[in-house]
């Protein structure tokens, strides 16, 4: 494994500022109808953010635990 590969593996997954803004806007809209909006649990768990690295870039999605359809795509396709 090269040093570059090792650096890529150790890099943490993070949301960039634009993704955070998009996620907050989606949550504000979703909270109007979400049955879990008032309670997120003792340690969270209401919101899951998934990072799926691909050879082109990283796919980023956030999903609310209230239902399977409450998903927002946060992927920055311009970075591909």
Description of the structure:
With 80 residues, the chain is an alpha+beta fold. The protein has a domain at 46-80. The chain has helices at 3-10, 17-30, and strands spanning 47-53, 58-64, 71-73. Strands 1-2-3 form a 3-stranded antiparallel sheet, with no helix packed on it.
Helix-strand string = HHEEE
Helix percentage: 25-40%
Q: Strand portion, in percent? A: 15-25%
Count the DSSP helices.
2
How far apart, in Å, are the first and last alpha carbons?
23 Å
Strand order of the largest sheet: 1-2-3
Structural class by secondary-structure content: alpha+beta
For the report, how would you describe the main beta sheet?
3 strands, antiparallel
Would you spell out the secondary-structure blueprint of this structure?
Blueprint: H1 3-10, H2 17-30, E1 47-53, E2 58-64, E3 71-73
Antiparallel strand pairs: 1-2, 2-3
Keyword list:
three-stranded antiparallel β-sheet, single chain, 80 residues, globular, alpha+beta, 28% helix
Write a short abstract of this structure:
The chain is an alpha+beta fold and 80 residues long. It is built from 2 helices and 3 strands.
């Amino acid at each position: 494994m090269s040093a570059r590969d090792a650096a890529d593996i150790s890099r943490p997954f993070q949301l960039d500022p634009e993704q955070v803004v998009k996620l907050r806007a989606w949550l504000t809209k979703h909270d109007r109808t979400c049955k879990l909006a008032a309670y997120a649990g003792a340690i969270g768990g209401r919101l899951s953010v998934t990072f799926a690295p691909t050879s082109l870039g990283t796919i980023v999605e956030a999903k609310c635990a209230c239902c399977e359809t409450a998903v927002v795509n946060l992927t920055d396709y311009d970075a591909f």
